[in-house]
Design brief:
The protein is of the alpha/beta class and 654 residues long. The chain is built from 17 helices and 19 strands. It is 39% helix and 16% strand. A 5-stranded mixed sheet has the order 6-7-9-8-12, with helices on both faces. A 4-stranded mixed sheet has the order 15-18-13-19, with no helix packed on it. The protein has a 3-stranded parallel sheet with strand order 10-3-11, with helices on both faces.
Length: 654
């Protein structure tokens, strides 16, 4: 038997092909066995040592980027072998079959078994058990929720894991945004919210873009990521025909250089995953999978470690044929996996050990991260092909094009677009008000500083809701109906809070201009409502008038201003009393959301064209035709106006 086999002390069994390799492999086996025996005698030893190491390293950190961390492990880059990067990760949709809250808490598991809080709980502890392990996390909307619930001990542990490169954040937007149904400002909003959190809490910024699930990819997204400072862009979904050709041509990796005025400043290294972002077939070790685990004790039935190692190396080599360098990434994880991270990591540990033992002369296998992979690619100094156009539309097989979501759920898409413009304008208005106060006070102190905190608080709900709705299962419309309802509810709540703050800012500005101490009553009338549903419009009578306030948050432009009015018998004037050309169009329409939905009312809209300079606020006076032209003395002379006022939204104008 000794001539045919070498049986190690822990029960590992391997076929010996060459006498020269037998002694070397036996020595390696004995080292592994000694380590496992020590762990068996003291199961808490490794955990305690790892925790102590991490906690000692979790002190105050200066600002740094991911490149300053040491993210590789003891194996290092090997230019002579195939480097197999084992990338442990989870893809956590912020809403899809369940709402974002249900996914986080693990609620409604009869719909889909998923609980993000448990993923993060166990991943952190499993990483602490073994300093060689690595994990990648992406969705900051989930991570911040989890982070806010942690005590100082866990927070210190996490900071240490981040510092030594075991926990790496990729992409790190609030969520993983869609690329086809979204405006570029919303992408910036989503990414800035997530990056703001990382910079504030850990002093870091991610260096790798990670869009493994959106349904097609646009060159404009690549250009934005490049200008955000990302080193690389990883994704999975491309057309099945394109994938087949790229695999054959070994062009699954490239330099993506979109056709923009920025030239090479907008280019980014891009890597397409071999088939999808999940584990290779047969190697899913998650608690929700049925694949066979690693069986490493020959005394028990079903010893399979040598065969599993052989099968895995075969898969890795097949995939490596599609890539031009001696590096291949194998993703270990999938949707909402690692809820029991100990089970996943224990089997991956064993798989790595056996591959190293049996095939260490051919491959270099280790836990890795996207940034480590990019660093190794740079060392290869390979000259990649260049791509300039989109990866759209996306088809995963014959006659199966993922393009219906471009136009699905139009009401949701429209609401997101409208609130995005409202948020941009409100944000600009708040910034101008804040700067004006700072100038008056001679710096950011006192009222201006407290106002800054108030602004952040007032806009936070809308900021987070808009970022959440950039998710590739939100604005795309691919979510279930109850999830769509939840998305819309969050948008509305954010709008209500932000709207109240905008009214307050406008009232303060009105007081400053008019020299009055009274607060005018502003109301924003949504244009998808009828004029009868806007109280301030109905208050227009022969004895009072309406103040229409319009804010331009953008550049020099000419706008069509639209406002609700009660009927055709109105005129509009500037604040100097000059009558302006305007049209009033009325139509019969149904009332929305009333007890009597069949009620038909007259809905009237006033239209006028005007030119606005950047960040200009203009006021107009609307009055009934029966009023005398000198009515506006209240605006020019009165110090205590009692008129009702209104604001309106049209295009990019508030």
């Amino acid at each position: 038997r000794r001539k045919q086999k070498t049986i190690n002390q822990a029960g590992r069994q391997t076929i010996v092909k060459k006498e020269t390799n037998k002694e070397e492999k036996t020595i390696k086996l004995k080292k592994v066995v000694r380590t496992y025996k020590k762990m068996a005698r003291s199961p808490m030893l490794l955990t305690v040592v790892a925790l102590a190491t991490v906690l000692l390293g979790a002190q105050a950190m200066n600002f740094h980027s991911w490149g300053e961390f040491s993210t590789s492990n003891s194996t290092g880059y090997d230019k002579e072998k195939l480097n197999i990067h084992m990338l442990s990760h989870t893809h956590d949709d912020m809403g899809w079959l369940k709402t974002v809250d249900q996914y986080f808490y693990g609620d409604k598991n009869d719909i889909q078994h998923a609980g993000v809080q448990y993923i993060l709980d166990t991943v952190v502890r499993a990483l602490a058990d073994n300093p060689q392990r690595r994990f990648v996390y992406v969705e900051m909307g989930f991570f911040k929720r989890w982070w806010d619930e942690q005590d100082d001990v866990i927070r210190s542990l996490v900071r240490g894991l981040i510092k030594n490169g075991q926990l790496e954040f990729a992409n790190a937007g609030w969520t993983m945004n869609d690329e086809s149904d979204i405006y570029y400002e919303d992408i910036i909003t989503n990414m800035s919210l997530g990056h703001e959190f990382l910079l504030k809490e850990f002093g870091i910024r991610p260096r790798v873009a990670w869009h493994i699930d959106p349904f097609g990819h646009q060159a404009s997204q690549a250009a934005i990521f490049a200008q955000m400072g990302f080193d690389a862009f990883f994704f999975s979904r491309i057309d099945y025909q394109d994938r087949a050709k790229r695999i054959a041509d070994k062009t699954m990796e490239m330099v993506w250089r979109p056709e923009t005025p920025f030239g090479k400043d907008a280019e980014i290294f891009t890597s397409v995953m071999y088939d999808n972002y999940c584990t290779p077939p047969g190697f899913c070790f998650d608690q929700g999978c049925d694949d066979t685990p690693m069986k490493t004790d020959h005394r028990l039935e079903g010893f399979n470690a040598d065969q599993r190692a052989a099968d895995f190396v075969k898969i890795a080599k097949e995939r490596a044929e599609a890539y031009p360098t001696n590096n291949v990434m194998i993703t270990m994880g999938c949707d909402f996996q690692f809820e029991n991270a100990f089970e996943n990591f224990k089997n991956i540990d064993k798989l790595i050990d056996y591959v190293r033992l049996l095939y260490g002369d051919e491959v270099n296998i280790f836990y890795s991260t996207p940034q480590t992979y990019v660093d190794y690619i740079k060392k290869s100094q390979y000259k990649f092909t260049v791509k300039t156009d989109d990866f759209e539309p996306y088809a995963d097989r014959v006659d199966a094009y993922w393009s219906g979501y471009y136009t699905s759920r139009v009401a949701q898409k429209g609401y997101i677009s409208d609130l995005s413009k409202f948020y941009a304008g409100a944000h600009t208005l708040a910034t101008i008000s804040l700067l004006n106060r700072a100038v008056q006070e001679g710096g950011f102190k006192g009222k201006s500083l407290s106002s800054f905190d108030s602004i952040l608080t007032s806009y936070r709900d809308l900021f987070e809701a808009l970022s959440l709705n950039t998710h590739h299962d939100a604005v795309s419309g691919t979510e279930k109906q109850h999830v769509c309802d939840d998305y819309m509810k969050r948008l509305y709540r954010g709008e209500v809070v932000a709207d109240e703050f905008v009214k307050r800012l406008l009232a303060e500005r009105h007081i400053t201009l008019a020299g009055s101490e009274s607060h005018p009553e502003f109301q924003r009338c949504n244009l998808n409502r009828t004029s009868t549903e806007c109280d301030v419009v109905n208050s227009l009578t022969s004895s009072n008038s309406l103040l229409l306030t319009v804010f331009n948050p953008s550049r020099d432009s000419t706008h069509v201003v639209r406002a609700k009015v009660p009927n055709k018998d109105v005129n509009v004037f500037d604040v100097k009393g000059v009558k302006l050309d305007a049209d009033v169009i009325c139509e019969q329409t149904q009332v929305i959301d009333t007890i009597k939905p069949d009620d038909v009312v007259t809905d009237c809209n006033l239209y006028l064209v005007d030119t606005f300079s950047p960040h200009e606020i203009k006021n107009y006076v609307i009055k009934t035709i029966s009023q005398e032209s000198n009515y506006f003395d209240w605006w020019l002379k009165q110090t205590n106006p009692t008129t009702k006022t209104t604001t309106t939204t049209d295009d990019d104008t508030i």
